[in-house]
Amino acid sequence: MYQYFQGLTIREGTKGVPAKRVKQLFEEVGWLRGGPSWQEEKFSLIFENSTWAFTVWDQEEMVGMVRVVSDQIMMATIMDLVVSEPYRGKGLAHKLISLCMEKLPHGDWFAHTSDENFSFYESCGFQVEENCSFYGYRKAREEGHRI
C-alpha cells in the first residue's frame, strides 16, 4: 500500500526496509551509538519480524518509520516511531500513529517509549499510566554485551 501525505510517500510493509537508513534514523535520535557493521542487518530484521510497519519517503530517502508488534486480535505495541528532524512538526508522526491504529481499531494499544514522549502520545489519544517494563538492553550494556 502507498499513500501520499504532504508530498511524501508512505509505504506499508515489513519487507525490504533498508537497514542502513533505519540505523541512521536511530543514530539521529540518539537510540544508537555506532556498533559493528556486521550487525547492520538487524535493522532490516526487526521489521521483517514485526507485525506492521510504515515507512515514509521523500523521493528515494526514508525520512520516517514506525513498526508494530501485535497479536492482531487484542493488543499491539508501537515499538519504534522515528521522524527525521527536518520533517518534524508537520503532523507526520500523528499520521503514522493513525495508520497503525487503523490496523486494530478496537484493540489495546501500547507505546514502547520514554516519558519525554508522553505528551505526544496523549495527543494521539493514549492514556499515560504506570507500567511495568524490563529493559534487557540496559542489563546487556552493564554486562558489556552492548555499546
From TrEMBL:
Q: Acyltransferase among the record's keywords?
A: yes
PROSITE patterns recorded:
GNAT (PS51186)
The UniProt keyword set, sorted, is:
Acyltransferase, Transferase
All copies of domain N-acetyltransferase, residue ranges: 8-147
Molecular-function GO terms, alphabetical = N-acetyltransferase activity
Domain of life (superkingdom):
Bacteria
Quote the Pfam families the UniProt record gives.
Acetyltransf_1
Note the InterPro entries from the entry. Acyl_CoA_acyltransferase, GNAT_dom, NSI-like
Q: Which GO terms describe its cellular component?
A: cytoplasm
| Name of this protein | GNAT family N-acetyltransferase
Organism, by scientific name, is: Halobacillus litoralis
